[in-house]
């Protein structure tokens, strides 16, 4: 058995911030999950639908692994990323780092992990690996998946080799902090402004506050979009609240990030953004509840109510991000 020493195997709410927390704590930097998410400019929105998708998807964060790259750049971390089509080389990339005493982040498809009770393909899942023996890999996943967990090496290999939406080619990564790290608090305002600017200037109508407005018009039609409303609508609502988002489609995490920042920075625009994202977090939970009710009852009135709330959310988040984009160093 090979185990990296002094690992704090603490699961959090979201997979990528959980893995980043493990890797950064090993480097001596212990930040809250909302702070990790916010410094990585992680908040976003996408209404994703296509002909080959069985049902639309509402996403509340930046693309998989973009969060990790953003955080590394923001904090001046050395991010080493390995990708390969060879399963053998993929294992050597991981085992060499662990043998050297360094935990490793992995992007994979959670469908093949032994401890996942709900078997759904998702190729953007991220875990931290900190050990292995002849049968199992020792991982840290989200709190809801068990935190410190084990999975069979064969299943791990299948998870890393899977191909499909959001998958990567056996991606693994390590993080090294600089010998003299710069103060992370100095990066708060640049991170907030970068997130706000990207949200407000999204290049297509499916993204940002325009994407939320688009969802407001399309969600009321969802009963006609599915042959299995009880399954599809319930799953959509579950992903918004319980699918590693921290609740409210990541808005609760961002609200808490802004709240932490408001304790460090005296800024009226920051306080405005924090207040508005508090409102948004509550309304997103209401939207998820209405979508679930529509699936249970088949009553489109619930989706009409959800659409009305989404119109409000488009305006609230636009106003919040406009305020946050005005923050000055």
From TrEMBL:
Residues 155-324 form the DUF4872 domain. Coiled coil: none annotated. Residues 14-142 form the Butirosin biosynthesis protein H N-terminal domain. This is BtrH N-terminal domain-containing protein. It comes from Nonomuraea indica. The lineage of its organism: Bacteria, Bacillati, Actinomycetota, Actinomycetes, Streptosporangiales.
């Amino acid at each position: 058995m090979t185990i990296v020493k002094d690992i704090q195997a603490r699961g959090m709410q979201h997979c990528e911030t959980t893995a980043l927390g493990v890797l950064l704590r090993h480097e001596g930097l212990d930040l809250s999950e909302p702070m990790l998410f916010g410094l990585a400019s992680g908040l976003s929105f996408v209404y994703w639908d296509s002909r080959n998708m069985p049902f639309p998807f509402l996403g509340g964060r930046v693309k998989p692994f973009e969060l990790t790259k953003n955080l590394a750049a923001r904090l001046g971390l050395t991010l080493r990323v390995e990708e390969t089509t060879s399963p053998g080389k993929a294992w050597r990339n991981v085992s060499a780092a662990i043998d050297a005493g360094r935990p490793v982040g992995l992007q994979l498809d959670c469908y093949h992990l032994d401890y996942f009770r709900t078997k759904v393909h998702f190729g953007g899942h991220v875990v931290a690996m900190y050990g292995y023996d002849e049968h199992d890999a020792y991982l840290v996943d989200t709190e809801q998946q068990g935190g410190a967990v084990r999975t069979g090496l064969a299943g791990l290999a299948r998870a890393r080799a899977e191909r499909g939406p959001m998958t990567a080619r056996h991606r693994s990564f390590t993080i090294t902090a600089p010998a003299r790290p710069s103060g992370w608090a100095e990066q708060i305002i640049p991170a907030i402004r970068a997130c706000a600017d990207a949200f407000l200037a999204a290049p297509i109508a499916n993204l940002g506050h325009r994407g939320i407005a688009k969802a407001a018009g399309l969600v009321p039609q969802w009963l006609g979009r599915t042959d299995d409303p009880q399954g599809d609508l319930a799953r959509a609502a579950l992903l918004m609240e319980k699918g590693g988002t921290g609740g409210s489609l990541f808005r609760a995490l961002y609200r808490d990030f802004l709240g932490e920042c408001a304790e460090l920075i005296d800024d009226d625009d920051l306080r405005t953004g924090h207040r508005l994202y508090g409102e948004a977090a509550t309304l997103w939970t209401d939207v998820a509840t209405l979508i679930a009710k529509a699936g249970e009852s088949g009553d489109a009135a619930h989706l009409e109510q959800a659409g009305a709330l989404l119109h409000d959310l488009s305006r609230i988040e636009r106003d919040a991000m406009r305020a946050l984009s005005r923050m000055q160093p």
